[in-house]
Design a protein that fits this description.
- Strand 1 and strand 2 form a beta hairpin.
- This protein has a two-stranded antiparallel sheet.
- The chain folds into three domains: about 190 residues; about 110 residues, no CATH class; about 70 residues, no CATH class.
- The relative contact order is 0.05.
- It has about 400 residues and is an all-alpha fold.
- The chain starts with 14 loop residues before the first helix and ends with a helix.
- About 60% of the residues lie in helices and about 0% in strands.
- The protein is built from 23 helices and two strands.
- Helix 1 packs parallel to helix 3, helix 2 crosses helix 3 and helix 12 packs across helix 13.
Length: about 400
């Protein structure tokens, strides 16, 4: 159940706190507390800020929120050493996402709710994420924590592999990880790394791949900006995409280079995660991976763009599994450019192409009916649909 940020009852507050923020407390005293000027202990001070933040007076709300954001580390660590109400802790978590030094104190507070951990996991650094990962019971109870950790690139890959295996073993399925089935299969195939040099090597390799891809993406963005185009698709390290699907040439697999891209050397679990959480450069490489689980993870990425999908739909070098996934997606095939590209791509299963043909424009049906690059059944059906439409107009 999601945490509800409701007001504290008077009996849940100390006597000193009730005098400042309880029912009937003077507005002037509340404003003093909202600005952090009331004579309260640290735990009472953060609780008072939460309570005032729920007041209907907008000036009080803004003052309390601002003060919570600006509380000193000493006040916060002292307050967090006591068990606070989960609602107060969530209020603080929302305002301290940029204060990594406070994360550990928040995570160690017994009152912290699962929803608050999910929020923190999305923004935490490596050290704090490792603290979260130790509490396996909480993760099994609230698998959304694993989802947040999975999507946070600061989480060690070895930690992700361990937690994916934990959830799979306990038949717990986190929502929000599109390629979770692929990740589970990959962990089962290679096994989670032991807590030794193997785990460190995987983590180091993942970090290097992320850094290299970020540099390549920055270069592509810079090149695209200079050319006045959007760098949505990268082909062999160069900007690509666009054009008529009938004229499109198969996109070759990335050639061997003097300095091999480290992404290609990663374990399958790391590739799947990069395909899900990475940038355009990651997906441009991994969509063509020889392992279908990796390629499908790239296609399922929540960060994928319409232009990427349109480009992949026209790419005859991609695996049939990826093209089948795109052609079966109602979301992707809403785009006419995607439908058209899929119909002109001979790698798309004929049954799926047949379902898309009636949606093509008459001019594109005419062109498809003359194409020598598609199966005979597609060409024949396109001609028949073209004839039917043109005869109706007579």
């Amino acid at each position: 159940m999601a945490i509800e940020l409701s007001s504290l009852a008077p009996e849940q507050m100390s006597e000193g706190l009730r005098k400042v923020v309880g029912p009937g407390a003077p507005a002037a005293l509340k404003m003093m507390a909202a600005r952090g000027l009331a004579p309260l202990k640290p735990a009472e001070q953060v609780t008072a800020l939460y309570q005032i933040w729920l007041e209907p007076d907008e000036a009080l709300r803004q003052a309390a929120s601002k003060s919570a954001t600006e509380l000193g580390d000493k006040v916060l660590t002292t307050a967090l050493a006591e068990t606070l109400d989960p609602r107060v802790l969530h209020f603080l978590s929302e305002r301290l996402l940029a204060r990594a030094v406070i994360y550990e104190a928040l995570l160690l507070n017994r009152g912290l709710a699962d929803d608050s951990v999910v929020l923190l996991a999305a923004h935490a650094g490596e050290r704090e994420l490792e603290i979260m990962s130790v509490n396996e019971e909480r993760i099994l109870r609230c698998p959304a924590i694993l989802t947040a950790m999975y999507m946070n690139q600061a989480t060690r890959q070895s930690t992700i592999d361990r937690l994916v295996e934990l959830c799979a073993r306990n038949r717990v399925r986190p929502e929000g990880i599109p390629a979770f089935d692929e990740a589970v299969a990959a962990v089962a195939e290679q096994g989670p790394p032991a807590f030794d040099g193997q785990a460190f090597a995987i983590d180091q390799q993942m970090a290097e791949a992320q850094a290299e891809a970020a540099a390549e993406q920055a270069r592509a963005d810079s090149d695209a900006k200079a050319k006045g185009i959007a760098p949505a698709v990268l082909i062999d390290g160069e900007l690509g995409g666009g054009g008529d699907p009938e004229d499109a040439e198969p996109v070759p697999v990335l050639p061997q280079k003097k300095k091999k891209i480290r992404i290609e050397d990663l374990p399958m679990t790391a590739k799947i995660r990069l395909a899900t959480t990475g940038n355009t450069f990651h997906r441009a490489i991994l969509i063509r991976d020889t392992k279908k689980q990796v390629a499908l993870a790239a296609a399922k990425s929540p960060a994928v763009t319409d232009l990427e999908i349109a480009s992949w739909a026209a790419n005859r070098a991609l695996s049939e599994e990826v093209l089948r996934f795109i052609a079966s997606s109602r979301t992707y095939t809403k785009d006419y450019a995607v439908k058209k590209s899929l119909c002109f791509n001979p790698k798309v299963p004929v049954a799926l192409t047949m379902g898309l043909l009636p949606h093509l424009l008459t001019a594109d049906l005419a062109k498809l009916g003359k194409s020598k690059n598609v199966p005979q059944a597609i060409m024949t059906t396109a001609r028949r649909l073209y004839v039917q439409r043109t005869e109706k107009k007579k």
